[in-house]
Design brief:
The chain is α+β, with helices and mostly antiparallel strands. Helix content is 42%, strand content 13%. It has 14 helices and 11 strands. It is globular and about 55 Å long.
C-alpha cells in the first residue's frame, strides 16, 4: 500500500482499509470473543457487594479488555487476538509511520459495547499533564522528531464512534474549540472528522490528537485498541507459547528492548542525581536516539515525574496517599518513562530522596502559581501547566 507519511504527520491520523484482511477477520473476531468471555467471568468474580452480577461488564460505558493483564489466559483459541497485531498493514505500517525499522506493540486492548445506552463521551486528548508533561512539550517534540507513539482503533464490526480533529496533535485548541467544549463537550467540533470504519479497517493517529467517542450504545462493538512505539510493556510473556515463531521472535526482541530502556532510564536518573550532564545526555540519546533539545526537554520532564513516583513509592506512609496517587505511582507507563514499583526498587530510600530533590527544580518549572484547567484534557484542576512548556534552555539548564 502507498503510505503518505508527510500527510500523516500533517493531519495526525490515517484511515487504513483492510488493516485486518477479510479472510482473517472471522478468526480474529472468534479469538477476541474467547477473551471477552474470560474477562466477563473475572469481572463477575471481582464485583462489589452493591454491583450487579456481571460487575464492570454491566456498569461500564466502554468495557475494555487489557491483554497485558490477561496474558496467562491466552491459548490456542485466542492466539489470533495477538497475531493480528503483526499483520503488515498494522505492524509494518506502524514502523513506517514511526520512522523505525521494527515498531513494537506497546499496548493491546479491546473496547466493547455497553449493555445499556451511555451516549457520547467527552472531547479530550489522551493526557493529563500532572502525570506527564504540558501539551506544548509534546507538540515541540513531534514537530522536531516525529511521534514516539501512535495509537490504533481497528473495529471488528462496522464502527462510526471515533471522531478526530485533523492537525490538532501539533497545536493547542482554538478559541472556538475551547468555547464549544466548555459549552457542550459532547457534540461535534467544527472541522472534526467522523472516521466511519468498516469491519477490519483501522484508524491510526498521533497522540495527543483531540478526539471523541461519539456514542456508546448496546449496538455490538468490538474495537481493537492499542499502539506502537519502540518497546513493549509486557512482563508476563506466557502467551508466547501459543504464537507463531515469527510473533514469538518479535515479542522477544521487543522485551529485550524494554529491558534496555529500563537500564537507560536508570542511567539517566543516576547521572542527573550526580550532576553528570554528559552522562545524562548520553543516556537520553540511548533512550530516544536522534532527538534534539526539545525532545531532551520533554524526556527530562517525564523523568521528573519518574523521580516523583520513585520517591512516593519509597515512603513508609505511601499507603496513606490518595488512592489515585497510589495507582499513578505503581502503574507502569513506559511511554513517559514510568516503570512501576519493581523499577523503584533499584533505588534506596536515601537515593529516592536525593533524586527527587535534584528534580524538584524541573518540577517547579512546569507548575503555575495556582490551580488551573484547560478544556479537552483528562483529569481535574491542577497546579501543573496544561499547555505551556517552559523554555527548553531552562529545563536543560537544570541538569
Amino acid at each position: 500500500m502507498t503510505i503518505d507519511r508527510d500527510r500523516f504527520m500533517k493531519d495526525g491520523y490515517m484511515i487504513v482499509r483492510n488493516a485486518i484482511p477479510a479472510d482473517k477477520l472471522e478468526a480474529v473476531r472468534s479469538a477476541y470473543e474467547v477473551l471477552v468471555d474470560l474477562q466477563k467471568g473475572i469481572w463477575a468474580a471481582d464485583r462489589g457487594e452493591s454491583d450487579p452480577p456481571e460487575g464492570v461488564w454491566a456498569t461500564s460505558a466502554q468495557p475494555r479488555l487489557n491483554l497485558e493483564t490477561m496474558a496467562n489466559l491466552v491459548d490456542e483459541r485466542s492466539a489470533m487476538a495477538i497475531e493480528a497485531w503483526l499483520n503488515p498493514n498494522i505492524h509494518g505500517l506502524s514502523s513506517t509511520l514511526l520512522g523505525v525499522p521494527d515498531a513494537a506493540v506497546t499496548q493491546m486492548m479491546l473496547m466493547c459495547s455497553p449493555v445499556k445506552d451511555h451516549g457520547p463521551a467527552l472531547w479530550h486528548r489522551d493526557m493529563y499533564p500532572p502525570y506527564c508533561a504540558p501539551l506544548g512539550g509534546y507538540i515541540e517534540d513531534i514537530l522536531e522528531g516525529g511521534p514516539r507513539y501512535i495509537q490504533w482503533n481497528i473495529p471488528l464490526y462496522d464502527d462510526d464512534v471515533l471522531w478526530v480533529v485533523p492537525g490538532s496533535h501539533i497545536r493547542v485548541n482554538s478559541e472556538e474549540e475551547d468555547a464549544s467544549i466548555r459549552s457542550d463537550p459532547r457534540v461535534p467540533l467544527s472541522g472534526s472528522i467522523q472516521t466511519n470504519l468498516k469491519a477490519g479497517d483501522g484508524v491510526v493517529y498521533i497522540l495527543p490528537i483531540l478526539h471523541w467517542g461519539s456514542n456508546y450504545t448496546p449496538l455490538l462493538r468490538r474495537c481493537i485498541h492499542g499502539g506502537f512505539s519502540t518497546f513493549s510493556q509486557y512482563e508476563d510473556l506466557s502467551f508466547l507459547n501459543h504464537l507463531s515463531d515469527n510473533t514469538q521472535a518479535a515479542f522477544s526482541r521487543w522485551d529485550l528492548r524494554s529491558e534496555e530502556m529500563k537500564e537507560h532510564t536508570e542511567s539517566a536518573l543516576r547521572a542527573f542525581m550526580a550532576g553528570n550532564k554528559d552522562g545524562y545526555f548520553t543516556a537520553l540519546e540511548r533512550l530516544h536516539p536522534g532527538r534534539g533539545d526539545r525532545g531532551r526537554a520533554l524526556s527530562t520532564v517525564f523523568l521528573s515525574k519518574t523521580s516523583k513516583r520513585i520517591h512516593s513509592l519509597k515512603q513508609p506512609e505511601f499507603h496513606t496517599l490518595p488512592e489515585q496517587e497510589q495507582g499513578w505511582a505503581e502503574r507502569p507507563h513506559p511511554g513517559t518513562l514510568q516503570w512501576g514499583r519493581a523499577f523503584a526498587a533499584r533505588f534506596s530510600t536515601a537515593e529516592a530522596q536525593r533524586l527527587w530533590e535534584r528534580f524538584q527544580q524541573v518540577d517547579s518549572l512546569v507548575q503555575s502559581s495556582e490551580p488551573q484547567y484547560a478544556p479537552g484534557f483528562q483529569g481535574a484542576n491542577s497546579i501543573y501547566n496544561f499547555i505551556g512548556m517552559p523554555l527548553t534552555e531552562a529545563i536543560l539548564a537544570a541538569v
